[in-house]
């Protein structure tokens, strides 16, 4: 039987809490073993030596010997991976896939226009290193947020209207909003088109 997967995202420096489902364990619990991939994280054995916390998880990991709950603080990028737990030497069917990522920084908007400045591309600029996956949203004036791409094309027409744009970047652990940008063109009508970034 294939394992049930739980995909988890946590911020670098944050805390992870894994609560296993013991409902399939019918006998009294005498041993618990958590693994990160193939490496041991925490092991408790009622009959042989109590509780051991291993290697890089020392000093920041606790194991509840009754519930099997595992807590890891001060999360690092290297803590990313698959976690599994055994009760009484039997592997539970559920595993946990952890991704430890950074919070997104505040984005800035840059613009690039054609020579006659009738069409401009706005780009939501930010360093996404170790912060993926990220999504982008844009807001025009006082309008609603729209989930779009990193770049927007803005076109100027003959009628008079000016507005401001704001971009927002979000990942599973955080979000940040840029300062607004306006007056990319001289006053005129702006229309918004989606740009697909390949």
Can you characterise this structure?
It comes from Oncorhynchus mykiss. This is Ig-like domain-containing protein. Its main location: membrane. It is found in: Membrane. Residues 105-178 form the Ig-like domain. By secondary structure, this protein is mainly beta. It folds into 2 domains: 4-101, Immunoglobulins (Immunoglobulin-like), CATH 2.60.40.10; 108-194, Immunoglobulin-like (Sandwich). Helices cover 0% and strands 51% of the residues. The chain is built from no helices and 19 strands. The strands form 4 sheets. Strands 1, 3, 4, 5, 8, 9 and 10 form a 7-stranded mixed beta sheet that branches. Strands 13, 14, 16, 17 and 18 form a 5-stranded antiparallel beta sheet that branches. A 4-stranded antiparallel beta sheet has the order 11-12-15-19, with no helix packed on it. Strand 4 and strand 5 form a beta hairpin. It starts with a strand and ends with a strand. The mean pLDDT is 88.
What is the element layout, followed by pairings?
Blueprint: E1 4-11, E2 16-18, E3 31-36, E4 39-45, E5 50-53, E6 61-63, E7 70-72, E8 81-87, E9 90-91, E10 94-101, E11 108-113, E12 119-125, E13 135-140, E14 146-148, E15 151-157, E16 164-171, E17 174-177, E18 181-182, E19 189-194
Parallel strand pairs: 1-10
Antiparallel strand pairs: 2-7, 3-4, 3-8, 4-5, 6-7, 8-9, 8-10, 11-12, 12-15, 13-14, 13-16, 15-19, 16-17, 16-18
Distinctive features:
mainly beta, Immunoglobulin-like, seven-stranded mixed beta sheet, 51% strand, 2 domains, membrane, five-stranded antiparallel beta sheet, Ig-like_fold, Ig-like domain-containing protein, 198 residues, Ig-like_dom_sf
